[in-house]
């Protein structure tokens, strides 16, 4: 999908999620979640997602050897029983600690809370090389 159409699709997805209305998230929802997933053929990536109570989020991916592959910041909301995670390539937070002007998200993932984890139900599967995204509570330690 070309960049302008992709941005429009992401903006529409975010607007639809906002129209759903807020819901009360479970009190234990914020925290660390992690998984080892295969995203590049035989290569696995360790994914860690941190949901903070104030709505901030961090998603990191590292190689099996522990080298940081990517670090992305974003925001999360609880909408209609789902966790909506909006990720940004550029830092969302100013060096002074304040929040920068809200850019459009580069990626939006929607998770269902299942048991002691999060299961992605709406996300760009091509971007994740078709991997199922099921994250369990507790950040994974570096290998």
What does it look like?
With 143 residues, this protein is mainly beta. The protein has a single domain (3-137), classed as Lipocalin. Helices cover 12% and strands 45% of the residues. It is built from one helix and eight strands, in the order αββββββββ. It has one helix at 3-19, and strands spanning 31-40, 43-51, 56-63, 68-79, 82-88, 107-114, 117-122, 134-137. Strands 1-2-3-4-5-6-7-8 form an eight-stranded antiparallel beta barrel. The radius of gyration is 15 Å and the shape is globular.
Topology:
Elements (H helix, E strand, L loop, with lengths): L2 H17 L11 E10 L2 E9 L4 E8 L4 E12 L2 E7 L18 E8 L2 E6 L11 E4 L6
Antiparallel strand pairs: 1-2, 1-8, 2-3, 3-4, 4-5, 5-6, 6-7, 7-8
Keywords:
single chain; 143 residues; mainly beta; Lipocalin; 8-stranded antiparallel barrel; 8 strands; 12% helix; globular
By helix and strand content, what is the structural category?
mainly beta
Give the biggest beta sheet.
Answer: 8 strands, antiparallel, barrel
In total, the number of domains comes to 1
Reading off the top of the CATH hierarchy, the class is best stated as Mainly Beta
Strands of the widest sheet, in order across it, are 1-2-3-4-5-6-7-8
- What's the SSE pattern? HEEEEEEEE
> Rounded to an integer, what's the Rg over CA atoms?
15 Å
Could you say what the CATH topology is called? Answer: Lipocalin
Shape: globular
Supply the CATH architecture. Beta Barrel
Helix content: 10-25%
Uncertain residue segments: 8-22
Q: Mean of residue pLDDT?
A: 77
Number of strands: 8
Question: How far is the N terminus from the C terminus?
Answer: 35 Å
* Beta-strand residue percentage: 35-45%
């Amino acid at each position: 999908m070309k960049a302008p159409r992709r941005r429009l699709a992401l903006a529409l997805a975010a607007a639809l999620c906002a129209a759903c209305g807020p819901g009360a998230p479970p009190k234990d929802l914020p925290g660390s979640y992690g998984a080892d997933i295969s995203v590049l053929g035989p290569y696995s990536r360790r994914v860690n997602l941190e949901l903070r109570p104030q709505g901030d989020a961090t998603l990191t991916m590292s190689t099996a050897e522990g080298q940081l592959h990517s670090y992305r910041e974003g925001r999360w909301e609880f909408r209609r029983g789902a966790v909506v995670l909006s990720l940004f390539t550029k830092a969302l937070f100013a060096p002074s600690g304040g929040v920068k002007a809200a850019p459009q998200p580069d990626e939006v993932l929607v998770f269902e809370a299942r048991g002691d984890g999060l299961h992605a139900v709406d996300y760009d599967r091509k971007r994740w090389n078709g991997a199922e995204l099921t994250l369990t509570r507790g950040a994974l330690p570096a290998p």
